[in-house]
Amino acid sequence: MTKISTVDELKSYIAPITVYEDYLKLSAKGRRRLALCPFHKEKTPSFSVDTDSGLFYCFGCHKGGDVIKFIEEIERCSFEEAISILARKAGVELERSGRYNETGGEDGKKREKLLNLLSFAAGYYRECLAGSPEGSPVKRYIREREIPENAVNELQLGYAPERSSLISGIIRAGFTKEEAVEAGVLKESKRGEYFEYFRDRLMFPIIDVGGRVVGFGGRTIGKDEPKYLNTPETAVFRKRDLLYGLNFSRDSIRQEDRGVLVEGYMDFLSLYARGVRCVAASLGTALTPSQAALMKRYSHTVVLLYDTDEAGQAAMERALPILLGQGLKVKIALMEGAKDPDECVKSIGAERFRELLDRSEPFFRHILGRFRARDLGSVEEKLKFLDYAAPHLSSIPDPIEREAFINEFSERTGLKKSLVVEKIDKKGPAPKPSEQPAEEEISLSVSEHVLVKAALSGNNDFMKKLLEIPPKLLDSMASGRLLRKKLEGTYITDEKELKLEAFVKNSCHEVQSVDDIDGAVYSLEKELLEKNRREVTLRLRESREKGDRELEEIYTRELLAIVNEAKNIQNTRFGSLKGD
Ligand SMILES: [Zn+2]
After folding, report:
1. Are residue 147 and residue 74 in the same domain, yes or no?
2. Is residue 58 part of a domain?
3. What is the CA angle 438-441-446, rounded to 5?
4. d(Cα 103, Cα 487) in Å, to the nearest integer?
5. Could you tell me the distance, in angstroms and rounded to a whole number, from the CA of residue 58 to the centre of ligand 1?
6. Of 15, 189, 430, 492, whose Cβ has the fewest other Cβ atoms within 10 Å?
Protein backbone atom coordinates (compact mmCIF):
# COMPACT_ATOMS: atom_id res chain seq x y z
CA MET A 1 0.00 0.00 0.00
CA THR A 2 1.21 3.51 -0.80
CA LYS A 3 2.65 5.25 2.25
CA ILE A 4 2.17 8.95 2.66
CA SER A 5 3.59 11.31 5.22
CA THR A 6 1.90 14.70 4.94
CA VAL A 7 -1.66 15.94 4.96
CA ASP A 8 -1.07 17.67 1.64
CA GLU A 9 0.02 14.40 0.08
CA LEU A 10 -2.93 12.57 1.62
CA LYS A 11 -5.37 15.07 0.14
CA SER A 12 -3.88 14.51 -3.31
CA TYR A 13 -4.85 10.83 -3.24
CA ILE A 14 -8.59 11.36 -3.08
CA ALA A 15 -11.10 13.68 -4.73
CA PRO A 16 -12.70 15.47 -1.76
CA ILE A 17 -16.11 15.46 -3.41
CA THR A 18 -16.27 11.65 -3.13
CA VAL A 19 -15.87 12.01 0.63
CA TYR A 20 -18.79 14.44 0.86
CA GLU A 21 -20.82 12.05 -1.30
CA ASP A 22 -20.28 9.31 1.28
CA TYR A 23 -22.26 11.34 3.78
CA LEU A 24 -24.55 13.67 1.84
CA LYS A 25 -26.94 13.80 -1.06
CA LEU A 26 -25.42 16.49 -3.27
CA SER A 27 -27.02 18.37 -6.10
CA ALA A 28 -25.06 20.31 -8.70
CA LYS A 29 -25.14 24.07 -8.97
CA GLY A 30 -22.46 25.36 -11.31
CA ARG A 31 -19.08 24.51 -9.89
CA ARG A 32 -20.62 23.97 -6.49
CA ARG A 33 -22.55 21.11 -4.93
CA LEU A 34 -25.38 21.83 -2.53
CA ALA A 35 -26.88 19.69 0.21
CA LEU A 36 -29.04 19.90 3.30
CA CYS A 37 -26.60 20.74 6.05
CA PRO A 38 -25.77 17.76 8.30
CA PHE A 39 -24.83 20.13 11.13
CA HIS A 40 -28.06 22.05 11.56
CA LYS A 41 -31.73 21.48 10.86
CA GLU A 42 -32.98 22.99 7.60
CA LYS A 43 -35.43 22.50 4.74
CA THR A 44 -33.57 24.22 1.90
CA PRO A 45 -29.90 23.50 1.29
CA SER A 46 -27.40 26.04 2.57
CA PHE A 47 -24.49 23.63 2.75
CA SER A 48 -22.16 24.14 -0.19
CA VAL A 49 -19.03 22.36 -1.45
CA ASP A 50 -16.73 23.91 -4.01
CA THR A 51 -15.75 21.09 -6.39
CA ASP A 52 -12.35 22.55 -7.35
CA SER A 53 -10.96 23.14 -3.91
CA GLY A 54 -13.04 20.63 -1.94
CA LEU A 55 -13.79 23.34 0.61
CA PHE A 56 -17.22 23.42 2.25
CA TYR A 57 -19.21 26.18 3.85
CA CYS A 58 -22.68 26.28 5.38
CA PHE A 59 -24.39 29.64 5.02
CA GLY A 60 -26.86 28.61 7.73
CA CYS A 61 -24.69 27.56 10.67
CA HIS A 62 -21.40 29.00 9.37
CA LYS A 63 -19.32 25.88 9.65
CA GLY A 64 -16.66 25.70 6.99
CA GLY A 65 -13.24 24.38 6.07
CA ASP A 66 -11.52 21.59 4.18
CA VAL A 67 -12.45 17.93 3.83
CA ILE A 68 -10.55 16.95 7.00
CA LYS A 69 -12.45 19.53 8.99
CA PHE A 70 -15.65 18.09 7.48
CA ILE A 71 -14.74 14.58 8.65
CA GLU A 72 -13.86 15.92 12.12
CA GLU A 73 -17.26 17.57 12.32
CA ILE A 74 -19.43 14.82 10.89
CA GLU A 75 -17.67 11.98 12.71
CA ARG A 76 -17.16 14.26 15.71
CA CYS A 77 -13.63 12.95 15.90
CA SER A 78 -10.17 14.31 16.45
CA PHE A 79 -7.91 15.58 13.68
CA GLU A 80 -5.87 12.39 14.05
CA GLU A 81 -8.90 10.17 13.62
CA ALA A 82 -10.07 12.25 10.66
CA ILE A 83 -6.86 11.75 8.72
CA SER A 84 -6.95 8.01 9.50
CA ILE A 85 -10.47 7.90 8.09
CA LEU A 86 -9.43 9.88 5.03
CA ALA A 87 -6.41 7.63 4.49
CA ARG A 88 -8.64 4.56 4.61
CA LYS A 89 -11.02 6.08 2.09
CA ALA A 90 -8.08 7.00 -0.14
CA GLY A 91 -6.60 3.51 0.15
CA VAL A 92 -3.23 4.73 1.40
CA GLU A 93 -1.28 4.11 4.56
CA LEU A 94 -0.02 6.81 6.89
CA GLU A 95 3.74 6.71 7.39
CA ARG A 96 4.50 6.06 11.07
CA SER A 97 6.98 8.86 11.38
CA GLY A 98 4.95 11.31 9.29
CA ARG A 99 4.11 14.74 10.64
CA TYR A 100 0.41 15.29 10.24
CA ASN A 101 -0.53 17.46 13.10
CA GLU A 102 1.58 20.48 13.94
CA THR A 103 0.45 20.29 17.53
CA GLY A 104 1.00 16.53 17.84
CA GLY A 105 4.48 16.82 19.30
CA GLU A 106 5.90 14.22 21.71
CA ASP A 107 2.48 13.08 22.92
CA GLY A 108 1.43 12.46 19.35
CA LYS A 109 4.51 10.35 18.70
CA LYS A 110 3.97 8.36 21.87
CA ARG A 111 0.34 7.70 20.95
CA GLU A 112 1.39 6.64 17.49
CA LYS A 113 3.90 4.19 18.96
CA LEU A 114 1.31 2.63 21.27
CA LEU A 115 -1.21 2.35 18.44
CA ASN A 116 1.34 0.60 16.26
CA LEU A 117 2.16 -1.79 19.08
CA LEU A 118 -1.52 -2.59 19.58
CA SER A 119 -1.95 -3.18 15.88
CA PHE A 120 1.01 -5.56 16.02
CA ALA A 121 -0.51 -7.40 19.00
CA ALA A 122 -3.88 -7.67 17.22
CA GLY A 123 -2.11 -9.29 14.27
CA TYR A 124 -0.32 -11.68 16.59
CA TYR A 125 -3.57 -12.75 18.28
CA ARG A 126 -5.23 -13.26 14.91
CA GLU A 127 -2.41 -15.53 13.78
CA CYS A 128 -2.66 -17.50 17.00
CA LEU A 129 -6.35 -18.10 16.40
CA ALA A 130 -5.80 -19.07 12.77
CA GLY A 131 -3.05 -21.44 13.86
CA SER A 132 -5.06 -23.15 16.61
CA PRO A 133 -5.96 -26.74 15.75
CA GLU A 134 -9.60 -27.56 15.08
CA GLY A 135 -10.07 -29.52 18.28
CA SER A 136 -8.48 -26.87 20.51
CA PRO A 137 -10.56 -25.35 23.32
CA VAL A 138 -10.78 -21.92 21.62
CA LYS A 139 -12.02 -23.40 18.33
CA ARG A 140 -14.44 -25.56 20.29
CA TYR A 141 -15.68 -22.48 22.10
CA ILE A 142 -16.25 -20.66 18.80
CA ARG A 143 -18.26 -23.62 17.52
CA GLU A 144 -20.30 -24.00 20.69
CA ARG A 145 -21.19 -20.30 20.78
CA GLU A 146 -22.16 -20.52 17.09
CA ILE A 147 -19.81 -17.68 16.12
CA PRO A 148 -19.92 -17.57 12.31
CA GLU A 149 -16.67 -17.73 10.34
CA ASN A 150 -17.40 -14.36 8.67
CA ALA A 151 -17.64 -12.67 12.07
CA VAL A 152 -14.26 -14.07 13.13
CA ASN A 153 -12.69 -12.51 10.06
CA GLU A 154 -14.63 -9.28 9.86
CA LEU A 155 -14.34 -8.42 13.54
CA GLN A 156 -10.69 -9.51 13.46
CA LEU A 157 -11.03 -11.85 16.42
CA GLY A 158 -7.92 -13.45 17.83
CA TYR A 159 -6.65 -15.75 20.51
CA ALA A 160 -4.23 -14.98 23.32
CA PRO A 161 -2.71 -18.39 24.15
CA GLU A 162 -1.73 -19.62 27.59
CA ARG A 163 1.89 -19.90 26.53
CA SER A 164 2.68 -17.18 24.09
CA SER A 165 5.64 -15.72 22.26
CA LEU A 166 4.14 -12.25 22.27
CA ILE A 167 6.96 -10.70 24.30
CA SER A 168 9.72 -11.82 21.95
CA GLY A 169 7.59 -10.82 18.96
CA ILE A 170 7.08 -7.33 20.34
CA ILE A 171 10.80 -6.88 20.84
CA ARG A 172 11.59 -8.22 17.37
CA ALA A 173 9.13 -5.68 15.95
CA GLY A 174 11.10 -2.85 17.53
CA PHE A 175 9.05 -2.09 20.63
CA THR A 176 10.16 -2.26 24.25
CA LYS A 177 8.58 -4.22 27.11
CA GLU A 178 7.86 -0.94 28.88
CA GLU A 179 5.90 0.28 25.88
CA ALA A 180 3.97 -2.98 25.82
CA VAL A 181 3.04 -2.40 29.46
CA GLU A 182 1.90 1.14 28.60
CA ALA A 183 -0.20 -0.25 25.75
CA GLY A 184 -1.76 -2.74 28.17
CA VAL A 185 -0.69 -5.99 26.51
CA LEU A 186 1.98 -6.89 29.08
CA LYS A 187 2.11 -6.42 32.82
CA GLU A 188 5.04 -6.20 35.14
CA SER A 189 5.20 -8.11 38.41
CA LYS A 190 6.56 -6.63 41.61
CA ARG A 191 9.73 -8.60 41.02
CA GLY A 192 10.24 -6.94 37.65
CA GLU A 193 9.13 -9.86 35.51
CA TYR A 194 6.98 -9.28 32.46
CA PHE A 195 4.08 -11.42 31.39
CA GLU A 196 1.08 -11.25 29.10
CA TYR A 197 -1.97 -9.35 30.29
CA PHE A 198 -4.31 -11.65 28.36
CA ARG A 199 -3.91 -15.41 28.58
CA ASP A 200 -6.10 -18.17 27.21
CA ARG A 201 -8.72 -15.71 26.01
CA LEU A 202 -10.71 -15.13 22.84
CA MET A 203 -9.67 -11.62 21.82
CA PHE A 204 -11.93 -8.86 20.55
CA PRO A 205 -9.87 -5.94 19.28
CA ILE A 206 -11.50 -2.64 20.23
CA ILE A 207 -11.16 -0.27 17.29
CA ASP A 208 -11.88 3.45 17.36
CA VAL A 209 -13.89 5.22 14.65
CA GLY A 210 -10.60 6.18 13.00
CA GLY A 211 -10.03 2.45 12.40
CA ARG A 212 -7.15 1.98 14.87
CA VAL A 213 -6.93 -0.78 17.47
CA VAL A 214 -6.89 0.99 20.85
CA GLY A 215 -7.39 -1.97 23.18
CA PHE A 216 -8.86 -5.43 23.63
CA GLY A 217 -11.62 -7.31 25.31
CA GLY A 218 -10.76 -10.91 26.16
CA ARG A 219 -13.25 -13.69 26.90
CA THR A 220 -11.82 -16.49 28.97
CA ILE A 221 -11.78 -19.91 27.35
CA GLY A 222 -11.02 -21.74 30.57
CA LYS A 223 -12.32 -21.04 34.03
CA ASP A 224 -10.38 -17.82 34.71
CA GLU A 225 -12.07 -14.88 36.33
CA PRO A 226 -13.21 -12.38 35.28
CA LYS A 227 -15.09 -13.88 32.38
CA TYR A 228 -14.40 -10.74 30.32
CA LEU A 229 -11.22 -8.76 30.76
CA ASN A 230 -10.60 -5.36 29.17
CA THR A 231 -7.35 -3.57 28.47
CA PRO A 232 -6.56 -1.34 31.48
CA GLU A 233 -6.91 2.41 30.96
CA THR A 234 -3.97 3.62 28.86
CA ALA A 235 -3.01 6.77 26.98
CA VAL A 236 -5.03 5.50 24.01
CA PHE A 237 -7.69 3.37 25.69
CA ARG A 238 -10.34 5.17 27.67
CA LYS A 239 -13.21 2.81 28.18
CA ARG A 240 -15.68 5.55 29.01
CA ASP A 241 -15.14 7.15 25.58
CA LEU A 242 -15.57 4.02 23.48
CA LEU A 243 -18.32 1.79 22.21
CA TYR A 244 -17.36 -1.65 20.96
CA GLY A 245 -18.13 -2.28 17.29
CA LEU A 246 -19.06 1.28 16.37
CA ASN A 247 -16.27 1.38 13.80
CA PHE A 248 -18.02 -1.47 11.97
CA SER A 249 -21.60 -0.40 12.47
CA ARG A 250 -21.66 3.39 12.27
CA ASP A 251 -22.66 3.55 8.60
CA SER A 252 -25.60 1.22 9.25
CA ILE A 253 -26.57 3.20 12.33
CA ARG A 254 -26.52 6.39 10.31
CA GLN A 255 -28.53 4.88 7.47
CA GLU A 256 -31.20 3.43 9.75
CA ASP A 257 -31.08 6.44 12.07
CA ARG A 258 -31.20 4.12 15.02
CA GLY A 259 -28.51 2.55 17.08
CA VAL A 260 -29.09 -0.57 19.10
CA LEU A 261 -27.17 -0.47 22.33
CA VAL A 262 -26.24 -3.81 23.88
CA GLU A 263 -24.11 -4.71 26.87
CA GLY A 264 -21.62 -7.26 25.70
CA TYR A 265 -19.15 -8.23 22.99
CA MET A 266 -21.01 -11.46 22.32
CA ASP A 267 -24.34 -9.64 21.93
CA PHE A 268 -22.76 -7.32 19.40
CA LEU A 269 -21.08 -10.14 17.52
CA SER A 270 -24.18 -12.27 17.42
CA LEU A 271 -26.40 -9.51 16.02
CA TYR A 272 -23.83 -8.05 13.65
CA ALA A 273 -22.86 -11.41 12.16
CA ARG A 274 -26.51 -12.19 11.48
CA GLY A 275 -27.08 -8.97 9.61
CA VAL A 276 -28.52 -6.76 12.36
CA ARG A 277 -25.77 -4.23 11.83
CA CYS A 278 -26.95 -1.03 13.50
CA VAL A 279 -25.54 -2.09 16.86
CA ALA A 280 -22.84 -1.11 19.35
CA ALA A 281 -21.86 -2.39 22.79
CA SER A 282 -20.93 -0.58 25.96
CA LEU A 283 -17.80 -2.19 27.30
CA GLY A 284 -19.35 -4.09 30.16
CA THR A 285 -19.61 -1.06 32.42
CA ALA A 286 -22.24 1.52 33.28
CA LEU A 287 -22.99 3.72 30.29
CA THR A 288 -21.20 7.09 30.35
CA PRO A 289 -22.33 10.48 28.95
CA SER A 290 -19.36 10.33 26.62
CA GLN A 291 -20.54 7.00 25.17
CA ALA A 292 -24.05 8.40 24.75
CA ALA A 293 -22.61 11.41 22.91
CA LEU A 294 -20.65 9.05 20.69
CA MET A 295 -23.86 7.25 19.73
CA LYS A 296 -25.53 10.56 19.01
CA ARG A 297 -22.97 11.34 16.33
CA TYR A 298 -24.65 8.76 14.15
CA SER A 299 -28.27 8.57 15.20
CA HIS A 300 -30.90 10.40 17.20
CA THR A 301 -32.63 7.25 18.34
CA VAL A 302 -31.19 4.58 20.60
CA VAL A 303 -32.85 1.23 21.15
CA LEU A 304 -31.81 -0.30 24.45
CA LEU A 305 -31.37 -4.03 24.45
CA TYR A 306 -29.99 -5.04 27.81
CA ASP A 307 -30.05 -8.42 29.54
CA THR A 308 -33.48 -9.29 30.85
CA ASP A 309 -32.27 -10.23 34.35
CA GLU A 310 -32.50 -7.85 37.31
CA ALA A 311 -28.91 -6.62 36.84
CA GLY A 312 -29.53 -5.87 33.16
CA GLN A 313 -32.76 -4.02 33.88
CA ALA A 314 -31.11 -1.98 36.63
CA ALA A 315 -28.26 -1.08 34.26
CA MET A 316 -30.83 -0.03 31.67
CA GLU A 317 -32.58 2.27 34.09
CA ARG A 318 -29.27 3.87 34.97
CA ALA A 319 -28.53 4.37 31.29
CA LEU A 320 -31.85 6.13 30.61
CA PRO A 321 -31.14 9.56 32.12
CA ILE A 322 -27.68 9.55 30.56
CA LEU A 323 -29.04 8.96 27.07
CA LEU A 324 -31.91 11.39 27.56
CA GLY A 325 -29.45 13.92 28.93
CA GLN A 326 -27.72 13.88 25.55
CA GLY A 327 -31.02 14.66 23.86
CA LEU A 328 -31.44 11.19 22.39
CA LYS A 329 -34.77 9.50 21.76
CA VAL A 330 -34.74 6.28 23.72
CA LYS A 331 -36.68 3.15 22.89
CA ILE A 332 -36.75 -0.18 24.60
CA ALA A 333 -37.10 -3.52 22.85
CA LEU A 334 -38.60 -6.46 24.64
CA MET A 335 -37.07 -9.88 24.29
CA GLU A 336 -39.48 -12.39 25.62
CA GLY A 337 -38.16 -15.72 26.75
CA ALA A 338 -34.49 -14.90 26.20
CA LYS A 339 -31.92 -13.76 28.71
CA ASP A 340 -29.88 -11.62 26.32
CA PRO A 341 -29.75 -10.45 22.67
CA ASP A 342 -27.28 -13.20 21.78
CA GLU A 343 -29.65 -15.93 22.92
CA CYS A 344 -32.64 -14.13 21.45
CA VAL A 345 -31.34 -13.69 17.89
CA LYS A 346 -30.11 -17.28 17.84
CA SER A 347 -33.52 -18.56 18.78
CA ILE A 348 -35.79 -16.39 16.61
CA GLY A 349 -33.47 -15.51 13.71
CA ALA A 350 -32.47 -12.14 12.24
CA GLU A 351 -35.74 -11.40 10.46
CA ARG A 352 -37.95 -11.78 13.49
CA PHE A 353 -35.35 -9.98 15.56
CA ARG A 354 -35.68 -6.99 13.24
CA GLU A 355 -39.43 -7.04 13.75
CA LEU A 356 -38.80 -7.00 17.46
CA LEU A 357 -36.64 -3.89 17.01
CA ASP A 358 -39.33 -2.23 14.91
CA ARG A 359 -41.83 -2.85 17.69
CA SER A 360 -39.61 -1.24 20.34
CA GLU A 361 -41.47 1.27 22.49
CA PRO A 362 -40.60 4.75 23.69
CA PHE A 363 -38.85 4.22 27.00
CA PHE A 364 -41.59 5.83 29.04
CA ARG A 365 -44.25 3.48 27.77
CA HIS A 366 -42.02 0.71 28.98
CA ILE A 367 -41.88 2.28 32.42
CA LEU A 368 -45.66 2.56 32.48
CA GLY A 369 -45.74 -1.08 31.50
CA ARG A 370 -43.88 -1.90 34.67
CA PHE A 371 -46.57 -0.05 36.59
CA ARG A 372 -49.24 -2.21 35.01
CA ALA A 373 -47.25 -5.33 35.72
CA ARG A 374 -46.99 -4.47 39.38
CA ASP A 375 -50.68 -3.70 39.56
CA LEU A 376 -50.34 -1.02 42.19
CA GLY A 377 -53.58 -0.55 44.06
CA SER A 378 -53.11 1.74 47.03
CA VAL A 379 -52.39 5.46 46.86
CA GLU A 380 -49.14 4.93 48.77
CA GLU A 381 -47.94 2.48 46.16
CA LYS A 382 -48.90 4.85 43.38
CA LEU A 383 -47.02 7.70 45.01
CA LYS A 384 -44.00 5.49 45.43
CA PHE A 385 -44.18 4.69 41.75
CA LEU A 386 -44.42 8.40 40.97
CA ASP A 387 -41.23 8.93 42.96
CA TYR A 388 -39.54 6.37 40.81
CA ALA A 389 -40.89 7.73 37.54
CA ALA A 390 -40.47 11.47 38.18
CA PRO A 391 -36.77 11.74 37.34
CA HIS A 392 -37.35 9.81 34.12
CA LEU A 393 -40.25 12.09 33.23
CA SER A 394 -38.29 15.22 33.91
CA SER A 395 -35.38 14.08 31.77
CA ILE A 396 -37.42 13.82 28.56
CA PRO A 397 -35.80 16.53 26.44
CA ASP A 398 -38.73 17.31 24.14
CA PRO A 399 -41.37 19.38 26.03
CA ILE A 400 -44.26 18.17 23.84
CA GLU A 401 -43.32 14.57 24.38
CA ARG A 402 -42.89 15.22 28.08
CA GLU A 403 -46.35 16.74 28.29
CA ALA A 404 -47.87 13.76 26.46
CA PHE A 405 -46.24 11.31 28.83
CA ILE A 406 -47.30 13.28 31.88
CA ASN A 407 -50.90 13.08 30.66
CA GLU A 408 -50.61 9.39 29.97
CA PHE A 409 -49.01 8.80 33.34
CA SER A 410 -51.72 10.64 35.20
CA GLU A 411 -54.46 8.82 33.28
CA ARG A 412 -52.99 5.40 33.87
CA THR A 413 -52.26 5.88 37.55
CA GLY A 414 -55.27 8.01 38.35
CA LEU A 415 -52.99 10.51 40.06
CA LYS A 416 -53.85 14.16 39.46
CA LYS A 417 -51.79 15.80 36.73
CA SER A 418 -50.98 18.76 38.97
CA LEU A 419 -49.48 16.38 41.50
CA VAL A 420 -47.31 14.73 38.86
CA VAL A 421 -46.18 18.10 37.53
CA GLU A 422 -45.36 19.33 41.01
CA LYS A 423 -43.27 16.23 41.68
CA ILE A 424 -41.36 16.73 38.44
CA ASP A 425 -40.73 20.41 39.17
CA LYS A 426 -39.20 19.44 42.49
CA LYS A 427 -36.84 17.15 40.67
CA GLY A 428 -35.65 20.17 38.74
CA PRO A 429 -35.60 20.85 35.03
CA ALA A 430 -34.45 18.27 32.54
CA PRO A 431 -30.70 18.26 31.99
CA LYS A 432 -29.91 20.25 28.90
CA PRO A 433 -28.45 18.31 26.03
CA SER A 434 -24.86 19.36 25.57
CA GLU A 435 -24.78 21.99 22.89
CA GLN A 436 -21.96 23.02 20.67
CA PRO A 437 -20.94 26.65 20.81
CA ALA A 438 -22.30 28.59 17.85
CA GLU A 439 -19.93 29.12 14.95
CA GLU A 440 -18.73 32.61 14.33
CA GLU A 441 -20.33 34.16 11.27
CA ILE A 442 -17.92 35.42 8.66
CA SER A 443 -18.40 39.04 7.77
CA LEU A 444 -16.39 40.36 4.89
CA SER A 445 -16.96 43.63 3.07
CA VAL A 446 -17.98 43.29 -0.58
CA SER A 447 -14.64 44.75 -1.66
CA GLU A 448 -12.56 42.30 0.35
CA HIS A 449 -14.74 39.52 -0.93
CA VAL A 450 -13.84 40.49 -4.51
CA LEU A 451 -10.13 40.52 -3.72
CA VAL A 452 -10.14 37.12 -2.00
CA LYS A 453 -12.23 35.64 -4.78
CA ALA A 454 -9.77 37.01 -7.33
CA ALA A 455 -6.84 35.55 -5.38
CA LEU A 456 -8.50 32.12 -5.29
CA SER A 457 -9.31 32.14 -9.01
CA GLY A 458 -5.77 31.29 -10.09
CA ASN A 459 -6.10 33.85 -12.90
CA ASN A 460 -2.64 35.30 -13.70
CA ASP A 461 -3.83 38.80 -14.59
CA PHE A 462 -5.77 38.97 -11.36
CA MET A 463 -2.74 37.85 -9.36
CA LYS A 464 -0.55 40.52 -11.00
CA LYS A 465 -3.07 43.15 -10.15
CA LEU A 466 -3.39 41.95 -6.56
CA LEU A 467 0.36 42.17 -6.06
CA GLU A 468 -0.02 45.94 -6.47
CA ILE A 469 -2.11 46.23 -3.31
CA PRO A 470 -0.20 48.51 -0.90
CA PRO A 471 1.08 46.52 2.15
CA LYS A 472 -0.47 49.09 4.46
CA LEU A 473 -3.86 48.31 3.01
CA LEU A 474 -3.33 44.53 3.30
CA ASP A 475 -2.45 44.95 6.98
CA SER A 476 -5.72 46.73 7.60
CA MET A 477 -7.88 44.04 6.02
CA ALA A 478 -9.68 41.18 7.80
CA SER A 479 -8.61 38.88 4.98
CA GLY A 480 -5.10 40.40 4.72
CA ARG A 481 -3.22 37.38 6.08
CA LEU A 482 -5.08 34.94 3.84
CA LEU A 483 -4.52 37.17 0.79
CA ARG A 484 -0.79 37.44 1.53
CA LYS A 485 -0.45 33.67 1.83
CA LYS A 486 -2.37 33.15 -1.40
CA LEU A 487 -0.17 35.66 -3.23
CA GLU A 488 2.95 33.94 -1.86
CA GLY A 489 1.53 30.51 -2.70
CA THR A 490 1.74 29.36 0.92
CA TYR A 491 -0.27 26.29 1.93
CA ILE A 492 -3.13 27.26 4.23
CA THR A 493 -3.35 25.25 7.46
CA ASP A 494 -4.83 27.78 9.85
CA GLU A 495 -8.42 26.81 10.64
CA LYS A 496 -9.76 30.37 10.53
CA GLU A 497 -8.10 31.13 7.22
CA LEU A 498 -9.33 27.84 5.75
CA LYS A 499 -12.84 28.73 6.81
CA LEU A 500 -12.58 32.18 5.26
CA GLU A 501 -11.29 30.62 2.06
CA ALA A 502 -14.16 28.11 2.12
CA PHE A 503 -16.67 30.90 2.64
CA VAL A 504 -15.44 32.87 -0.36
CA LYS A 505 -15.01 29.79 -2.56
CA ASN A 506 -18.62 28.81 -1.93
CA SER A 507 -20.21 32.20 -2.44
CA CYS A 508 -21.57 32.84 -5.92
CA HIS A 509 -20.06 36.28 -6.40
CA GLU A 510 -17.76 36.21 -9.45
CA VAL A 511 -14.88 38.50 -10.39
CA GLN A 512 -15.26 39.45 -14.07
CA SER A 513 -12.23 41.57 -14.84
CA VAL A 514 -9.19 43.40 -13.52
CA ASP A 515 -11.41 46.49 -13.23
CA ASP A 516 -13.39 44.78 -10.47
CA ILE A 517 -10.16 44.43 -8.50
CA ASP A 518 -9.26 48.06 -9.17
CA GLY A 519 -12.63 49.20 -7.96
CA ALA A 520 -12.41 47.08 -4.80
CA VAL A 521 -8.92 48.29 -3.92
CA TYR A 522 -10.06 51.86 -4.52
CA SER A 523 -12.98 51.63 -2.14
CA LEU A 524 -10.91 49.88 0.51
CA GLU A 525 -8.23 52.54 0.29
CA LYS A 526 -10.90 55.21 0.54
CA GLU A 527 -12.42 53.49 3.57
CA LEU A 528 -9.04 53.20 5.25
CA LEU A 529 -8.23 56.87 4.62
CA GLU A 530 -11.64 57.87 5.91
CA LYS A 531 -11.04 55.83 9.05
CA ASN A 532 -7.64 57.48 9.52
CA ARG A 533 -9.11 60.91 8.83
CA ARG A 534 -11.70 60.44 11.56
CA GLU A 535 -9.07 59.30 14.04
CA VAL A 536 -6.70 62.21 13.31
CA THR A 537 -9.54 64.72 13.40
CA LEU A 538 -10.49 63.45 16.84
CA ARG A 539 -6.93 63.78 18.12
CA LEU A 540 -6.62 67.22 16.58
CA ARG A 541 -9.71 68.35 18.46
CA GLU A 542 -8.35 66.89 21.71
CA SER A 543 -5.00 68.65 21.34
CA ARG A 544 -6.81 71.96 20.66
CA GLU A 545 -8.89 71.53 23.78
CA LYS A 546 -5.77 70.83 25.81
CA GLY A 547 -4.08 73.88 24.21
CA ASP A 548 -1.12 71.78 23.07
CA ARG A 549 0.08 73.82 20.08
CA GLU A 550 2.89 71.43 19.15
CA LEU A 551 0.58 68.40 18.89
CA GLU A 552 -2.03 70.49 17.11
CA GLU A 553 0.47 71.29 14.41
CA ILE A 554 1.52 67.67 13.98
CA TYR A 555 -2.09 66.50 13.57
CA THR A 556 -2.93 69.34 11.22
CA ARG A 557 -0.07 68.26 8.98
CA GLU A 558 -1.18 64.61 9.17
CA LEU A 559 -4.70 65.57 8.24
CA LEU A 560 -3.48 67.53 5.25
CA ALA A 561 -1.41 64.55 4.12
CA ILE A 562 -4.47 62.31 4.32
CA VAL A 563 -6.56 64.73 2.24
CA ASN A 564 -3.80 64.93 -0.35
CA GLU A 565 -3.45 61.17 -0.50
CA ALA A 566 -7.17 60.86 -1.06
CA LYS A 567 -6.97 63.26 -3.95
CA ASN A 568 -4.00 61.36 -5.36
CA ILE A 569 -5.74 58.04 -5.31
CA GLN A 570 -8.70 59.55 -7.05
CA ASN A 571 -6.60 61.11 -9.78
CA THR A 572 -4.44 58.09 -10.50
CA ARG A 573 -7.41 55.76 -10.71
CA PHE A 574 -9.95 57.95 -12.40
CA GLY A 575 -7.91 60.66 -14.15
CA SER A 576 -9.95 63.84 -14.27
CA LEU A 577 -13.15 62.26 -12.93
CA LYS A 578 -14.50 64.16 -10.00
CA GLY A 579 -15.03 62.42 -6.68
CA ASP A 580 -16.75 63.57 -3.55
ZN1 LIG B 1 -25.31 24.25 8.60
Report:
1. no
2. yes
3. 175
4. 26
5. 5
6. 189
CA of 24 to the centre of ligand 1 (A): 13
Residue pair 159/138 in contact (Cβ under 8 Å)? The answer is yes
Q: Which residues pair with 50 in a beta bridge?
A: 32
Cα–Cα distance for residue pair 542/561, rounded to 1 Å:
19
Residue-range definition of the domain harbouring residue 565: 446-574
Residues 6+ apart with CB under 8 A from 290: 240, 241
Chain-centroid distance of CA 161 in Å reads 36
User: Does the pTM exceed 0.85?
Assistant: no
Residues in contact with 90: Cβ distance below 8 Å, sequence separation at least 6, in sequence order: 10, 13, 14
Q: What average pLDDT does this structure show over 457-479? A: 90
Q: What is the pLDDT of residue 100?
A: 60
Measured in Å, residue 42 CA sits from the centre of ligand 1 at 8
307 and 253, same domain (yes or no): yes
Residue 103 CB coordination number (10 Å): 7
| Whole-number pLDDT of residue 22 | 86
Long-range contacts of 40-45 (CB under 8 A, 24+ apart): none
Whether residue 579 is contained in a domain is answered as: no
Rounded to the nearest angstrom, the distance between the alpha carbon of 45 and the centre of ligand 1 is 9
Residues in the chain, total = 580
Q: How far is it, in rounded angstroms, from Cα 495 to Cα 82? A: 15
In a domain, 413, yes or no: yes
